Amino acid sequence: MSKAEDIQYKINIILNEEKRAYQANGRRGGGLGSFNIKINDGWRREGEIPKILNKSIDSEAIISSQSELLLKIYSASNGEKRKEFKKYLLNNLDKDSNYSDVAYLIMYILHRLGNTVIALKSANKVLKGDAVHGYSNLLAMLAKIVFYEYLLIKKEDYCLMKEILETDGEYNFGLLEKINLAEMKIIENELNNADKNKKLKNKLKDENFWMQSNIEGKDEHLFIGKRDGLSDKVHLIVDQETGETRIDREDLPPDQLIKEVQTVVTIIRNDGKTIKSTKGKLKFEKQNV
After folding, report:
1. 279 within a domain of the structure (yes/no)
2. In the 8-state DSSP scheme, what is residue 34?
3. Could you tell me if residue 10 is inside a domain?
4. How many CB atoms within 10 Å of residue 162?
5. Contact partners, residue 225, CB within 8 Å, separation at least 6
6. CA atoms within 13 A on the CB side of 172
7. What is the model's pLDDT at position 222?
8. Nearest 5°: phi and psi at 152?
9. pTM to 2 decimals?
10. Per residue in 152-167, pLDDT tens?
């Protein structure tokens, strides 16, 4: 294999170009090389609660021509080359690396490859204390990633990040506060989803019968009864994933009120016209006693 095809050689070419970009758009001006973001969060009015997380999730807010090229090299590589790719980047999160000043780019790439915590842990051990602000810039990048992607990061990863940062002593651009708020957002999101999934009710009725549909998890519970003041009802349970219909035998036998259950698929075309298809029928016949 020629040197030009060596994956480390290709990575070095891109990291060298990033070093040039950082010299032009570096820390002094609040920039991070080829990236479109700034290190600081801007000014705020006195008494105003600082905005430490973006209003909405945006995984495409942070962009860089160098990062896109590195990710393309990774995607075009096979299994062993991919391992070498990640290992080489991790090894360069070191204060003695020629690329310590562009550690922010390495952090971003490793985050995109699902190795956020591994990268932070490695940098905390062997990059921290460097003379070119490499570790500090890496934390600035991670703070921006959390700012835009807070609900896309695993809550378990947040716990591990906090363990590393709480004893770090390095200025982290409000990263701990961002993580704390992100964790709160995750809790809020989980509770809201739980409330939505817990029970969704829909009740229909006519002159003689009523029907109620409750959705709990993956099951839809159908209750059908007569409007006669009695509590007797038929209870069917439909698995929304498999389509299987079950009968709750503690209630009325289905044949007392139901002749047939049909599954109908409705397709709405681009021109607004609808097509309906009956995919299955479940008949209930009265039993001879």
Report:
1. yes
2. T
3. yes
4. 15
5. 209, 210, 211, 231, 232, 233, 234, 257
6. 24
7. 84
8. -95, -10
9. 0.69
10. 999 999 999 999 999 9
